[in-house]
């Protein structure tokens, strides 16, 4: 019998009051995909990602049925959207003790349901254990739902469950997919819609890497994601989700759950706090006009393993991003007008073009072609590298990763992988995926959420996770991977590493500037267990180099003269050096009557410009 689950129909500002003050700062005045991206930035920062096994106990905080048949102040019964009967007593009920692996009929037990099927993200963390869409449900219905999408059931019904939810053929207007869908009861359709749209916001930037096309035949493709980072879902599916959001307003149950999950994960579902944002983002009507072409594409920095591009933006006002092509193949996208293409091969010729795309995903024509040949070598690291490894007492587990590549790095294709031993063989579990952007000469920490270091806190870490990768014991082999390839290794694969990795803090020696897939203990300084001084801080030599943002030099590559912007009037000495440190030229008070340094006499190659104690790399054409 329904007790006090009341629809909350208030103006949007009242919902925002549920969030901590300032949580949604920066969203005022935004609409469309700009609002979506801002919300992504907010809810993706400083999350705590728990282990999948932790969720069972956490459901006692997030998913108890205080709203329908039970005492709001004293219940141990789980609220299961797949079996709850809002208008009367439930046929069966569960506590967290009734968890099971599989079931042959309804009512035998419950298990954890991924509202966005885990096949979408290959069961990888942090997606695998995100409480906002991993919920307790009847085990049998969970099994039968499989990886079928939520949707509107047509005339062919395969299963009808005890609370009238059902599985049948898809009848979502406008959908090409004709397979099976699971249709929840009306009471929970808004809950489902807001959970799926949370997923689209939380994992923007990674959606294109997910398994959004399960089948070459669209009529059989069970995943409604469309591969776009902004729109996220097929347009017909978005229409259905918007309808469900309107038809089933936010309830007190959702508000309470949002607050409970926030206490655990430190992020929120913005569409429970402000459901009007859904139509503000996805209710836009794009035009049918192809956007204007971006112009003046140039290579502004060329190196051995990367090239940085810059271009003049499209003049069309509805452009939401740019697609970047390398030798004709799509290699990335950005909302900005600069982009660093990495993982290139030294001494190799490349051509690049850029296209603008708008909110309707219409593409402009190609920009001009920019060509370059990468250098044979440079001073930068060829990839990210692990610079600290802490295997301390209890849950004191931490990894520090540093970017010395010379350019910002998008972390979406990077992951941490760990190897376990089953008693008969060594095996890798599903990885933990990184996300966001790490700047050049920036270092960040991945930390276990239950860590209790005396000199470093959970709030300081960029990534906080109890995924298997951060439960290492010292015997485990760990990898930093780019896509499926190892970038940097900790330990030796296929053997116990406890003699070198157990109860120790390892700090990469400052003279080690490249990652390696072959672990060598000689590259590391060893400290006692739980030692964490300067964790998350660049080494002194790197920090000095990282301070070189006071001035800007251009163009780069350079022809005749290097222009320098900034407060240059107090610079006493300018020197050009080669990579061995040999001084090629020196000028005293170089900017007394000019703003340039001459490079006319330099042979083609890479050099360093030293302005007092600050160093910049440049290339002479």
Q: What fraction, in percent, of the residue positions are helical?
A: 10-25%
- Number of structurally distinct domains: 4
What is the β-strand count?
A: 33
Low-confidence stretches: 1-17, 544-549
User: Strand content of the residues, in percent?
Assistant: 25-35%
Counting helices, strands and paired strands, the structural category is alpha+beta
Radius of gyration (CA) equals: 27 Å
Q: What's the average pLDDT?
A: 92
Query: What is the topology, as strand order, of the major beta sheet?
Result: 1-22-21-15-14-25-26
Net shape: globular
Strand count, sense and barrel status of the largest sheet are:
7 strands, mixed
- How large is the count of helical segments? 11
Distance between the termini: 78 Å
Descriptive report:
With 621 residues, the chain is an alpha+beta fold. It folds into 4 domains: 271 residues, no CATH class; 79 residues, Immunoglobulins (Immunoglobulin-like, Sandwich), CATH 2.60.40.10; 156 residues, Immunoglobulin-like; 74 residues, Immunoglobulin-like (Sandwich), CATH 2.60.40.10. It is built from 11 helices and 33 strands. Strand 14 and strand 15 form a beta hairpin. The N and C termini lie far apart (78 Å). The N terminus is likely disordered.
